[in-house]
Structures
1.
Amino acid sequence: MKHKLLSGNAILGMTAAAMIGAVAPQAAIAERTKNLILMIGDGMGPQQIGLLELYAREAPDSKYNGNPTAITKFSDEGILGFSLTNPHDALVVDSACSASHLALGIDAPLEAVGIDANGDPYETILEMAQRLGKSTGLVSDTRITHATPAAFAAHQPHRSLENEIAVDMLGVGPDVMLSGGLRYFVPASVNDKGDAYEALKERTGGGFRLSSKRKDERNLLEEAENLDYTVVHTLNQMNDAQDDGKLLGLFANSAMMDGIAYSRSANEPGREQPSLREMTMKALDILSQDEDGFFLMVEAGQIDWASHNNDPGTLLHELLRFDEAIEYVYEWVQGRDDTVVVVTADHETGGFGFSYSIADLHEPTELPGSVYAGRSFDRNFDYARKEILSKLYKQSDDWFGLWLGFLRKDKADQTPENLMELVNSHSEFKIDLEDAKAIMAKQPNPYFSEGHVFAGQETLPKIADYQAFYMVTLGTHAALISRQMADQTNITWATGGHTHTPVNVIAWGPEETIDPFSGALHHVEVGALMKDIISGE
Ligand code: MG
Ligand code: ZN
């Protein structure tokens, strides 16, 4: 690994301190705080954190058994700010722009990664850490080329350019990259199912589907090996990799498994895909070898996806998966004064919330207090029963995947009856035949725009309102499943997209270092503050 005694900035700081005969606080911070761990819950607004906290504290059979979440522990021991996420020219942000704000510490264009508002490449916090001799890592449970990790190690005009992003990322060369996204790293001829396919199957162990999205014959896995990466595709291979070298782990063709699939397989012997927690553990094993410190970004990216699909059961499992990774980081930093941890989100997704309704009214009860003498304790609304949390936990398939599975049935079997049965077999909340019909219904797209990636669809799933905010067909059918259960779950959603909701910023570490993260912030500021920590300024 690289070793440098002191970064240029730290030396400058110390010289200045010596000249004025006092200890420069900046230099002191730079020497002590050498590691920064940034943990991003994509789409994890305060409402989503609220779901996790309600589940942990109030679910009748909560897995936490009265113990606090890792998010609670970091919040209690660290400091809390709230941060606006909007770009300079709009109110609502996408993940690429928001991650760029965090990575660059300056304004950035929507849907682009690692570039400034003019459209020029700009140094990311990861590149800055490299320049200062630190080790760096990116971990995500989506795919490594997806918007959030990409913004830290690529410079491209659009987030969809994942082939180019993969090349950029190898060029930047973080010491650790662990996620899905193999299909952007393998030659196009893999799709011919010939020699290239067989070679790839041999290399990966054949544990997951293989295809390529590349338009060329570049084999970035081989290129990575030539750049001294160990390349791995399973949990065992990852754990066997040396802690003193570079590591590229690509564990899925596209996305890694969703939170429910992970929960169901977590304790299965022979599970081949590492969890977010296991990837974080390995990344810290490797990066902590560097005496100069490190920068690590860990993303729980499917909190966003579950929220796009308005799928609360999956959302809960995504949050649990993230908290498991945060818990490991919490354990890892105990007793350390050289590490800052920042837990935040890039934006809120879905306009999610529990609410009260008139769908399931309570019978009046009695309260013993004097104020209620001669009067029953009555409420006008159903304020959402705690059992809902345990029922949500028991959802056993994600609604997006379930809908996909339904579409893969023979046309003749794609009936409302079969959909009803399928949904009800995976949920404690039941739908009826009319609900199933509503989930399947389509209508002409009033926003049709020829050739547009989303607006170009001639029909859209029929949603009662906000049609323009539900543009992804598969996800909207998933959202409609949740809508038909809303009377039972007390859960409402505002959109299939993102909202402006300010997100929490939780910072833990040496007091003088994390102080600036308290209060009202903007994500551009949060990015700049993190760069200050890395550079010791
Ligand atoms: Mg993301
Ligand atoms: Zn999103």
2.
Amino acid sequence: MRHRWRIIAVLALLWAATPAFAHKPKAIVLFYADDLGYGDTAVYGQAKVPTPHLAQLAKEGCIFRDAHSATPICTPSRYSLLTGRFAFRRPGTRILDGDAKLILPVEGSEESEVTLPVLMKRAGYRTAAIGKWHLGLGAGDAAIDWNGEIKPSPREAGFDRSFVMAATADRVPCVFISDGRVANLDPADPIEISYDRAERKWPDELTARTNPECLKAWGRPSDRQHDKTIIDGISRIGHMRGGQSARWKDQELADRITTEAENFIRQSAGTPIFLYFATNDIHVPRDPAPDFRGASGLGIRGDATVQMDASLGRIRQALAENGYDDTLFVFTSDNGPKVADGYEDGAREAWEGENPSAPYRGGKYTVFEGGTRVPMIVAWPGEVKPGTESAALVSQTDLARSLARIAGVEVPEGACGDSRELAYVILGRSAEGRESLVEQPAWGPWGYRKGAWKLIDSPDPQLYFLDDDPGERDNLASACPEKVRELQAELKSIISSP
Ligand code: CA
């Protein structure tokens, strides 16, 4: 009898020590679109925007129908994805300016603060962040030295290789930062950056107010935030001078970061890689390359989506050409869509009568479903069944623990505290996703999902049953006060827990 128990104990130990999967993927790629809505691509129903590479990925993998970014805006969604922690746990995690300090914990911090890229490094992957960063740079103890070494940068946050935009394309500085240094900078033409609210920072500064004749037709601001320094014919948020040789051309932006991703893949051939590719598409300002102009039936915003799809195709091709057939590929978006977002670029007119969140309501900045319910497609040859769909409720916050499990690396105690280990769900093998989900607002009331129930927790609460009412039109709050109270109590408990 004792002998049998010993065998059982040994078997249990072996089971616990066995990695989740027979092997770990040679490459893990997170392709993070920007402001791409649930209903923005042909895969999710928008026939006027051809996205053949995304369609191919979907054909090879699993389409998620209820996957969510942590918030309906950029910075906190990215923070949650890369830390496995809800952004509201870290005060000050809002949309950052281009000169904000780094908000990710640096490598070597407390074990309870370990990030996804650091976990991937521990699992043996060479890690890279390419594209949009928007998580801050520097320690915040002094102004960032754009003309020297910028530290901490993505490298200190766990990325062996980085080639990033500091924030967004609509914010200065409009330069790429390669492994902690501004790329192509002429030291004789140093960069100065200011987020001073002044109309004009320097007497020779060209802004949308002083020199509207210098603006491209689609680079005109529609608000008082986007009307500062004109760079490449587009006015930006914030002031910049100097660094002429380092400034990007907006029409070359997608090609440039995609080329850097291809280079990283090629130079890493033979080594396991974790690539976090954060495209600028389809965030404003939208200025797709001439090749993509008119490529969609929905103006500049649709064309930017076709450009994003081309980047996806190029990265997948580079993986295939460099021995990375065994790639776990995750495509998703950092928040829902916003058709007109600071520029008069013709998107509003082109999208008249269209809903980029379809069939959901709201988009970027909102806690209606369209704010955080985003496209997500996962493929991994031999591990994800091709051509499948999943209705499981998942959060991008869950990727940290799930990818760690797939990569066979232990998550330290207390780390990734809001991340659920849903590896089998992410791979489309289990439909048992989250029971509930917090939808952190950009501002205003919070959203909370429990199954098909949806609460918007304002003083005049809204309650929807999404199975019958995906568009959140039929407020059931007064008909179901007990359900409202139940969901309010659960939401409060999650937010107030450490
Ligand atoms: Ca975004």
